[in-house]
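This section describes the prediction task in plain terms. A model, or a person checking by hand, is given the sequence of a single protein chain and must write out its three-dimensional structure as a string of tokens. No templates, partner chains or ligands are provided. The sample shown here is typical of the held-out split.
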Amino acid sequence: MKKICIIGAGSYGTALAIVLTENEFPVTMWAREKEVVEGINNHHMNPSYIKDVKLPELITASNNLDEAISDSDMVIFATPTHALRTVAEKAKSSFNGKEIIVTVTKGIEKDTLMTPSQILKDVLDGVILEDQIGVLSGPSHAEEVSKFKPTTVVAAAYSNRVAHIIQDTFMTPMFRVYVNHDITGVEIGAALKNIMAIAAGVIDGLGLGDNSKAALITRGLHEMKRMGAKMGASQDTFSGLTGMGDLIVTCTSQHSRNRFVGYNIGKGKTLDEIISGMDMVAEGVKTTDSVYQWAERNNVEMPITKAVYSVLFENKQPSEAIYDLMTRNPKEERRL
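The expected answer:
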């Protein structure tokens, strides 16, 4: 590849840029902020994210989309879900139609209820073919990826060829990439694990212990499978890296922004107080709203998602939401 462009210079976009330079790919990052562009180009540091990591000289930055995308063989969208459509619309005129498009965004768009790859298909129609679009996802906190700690993720795409190109492009000795052919399941797992991480944080904030966390992770996986079944995903996907793997790391890690939100809610802070004090986006907050609306619209029972929604958007006390979950009607773990 001649060049790779990463749209979004947040922590994960920056970490992936470092990974790509391990394979000697020149990377241009697009950022809105002038100080981020200057920091990367002049000092080889991102002044806003992963501030303690020196960036390789193969990484440059621009706040001009045309300039960043020009001559790129692969363009990676690393923006939050709520900004993806707007940024993709602005970028559309810069494509020559031959680029491979990759999203590393994890969420469900409000109102349309589209996954990130579906948003890109919708926006880039007429310029980029569906077969040119793929995703990269899995348990991969940027803080660890940027320091070359062993990480394993999944590449999925609408075509087998593109999935393997993504795999080959990102694979390094410390960043292992598997191919998964179920792009729908991969994106559902990536979105829902953030909702469950908020719930896990609430459990930790309330000091409810390991039994509660284990139950949450297990039943959270069940909700992933329910949504996946409705959307035609493979159930096996949720036992893999973008299901159980991402669920475990996001529900337990100190790096998880979504767990941080839930933890502080458990400690008695309001959502507005928490969000106003964060530099990075916790995707799970907006995703909770989207998935709750999806579940209501499709008549799919998702009690944990509903409980998190009630705490975030209906001012329900976390302890009350947990009590309601625990005292629901008796169920069978698996229906015959």
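For orientation: The beta strands are 4-7, 27-30, 59-62, 74-77, 100-103, 133-137, 151-157, 175-179.
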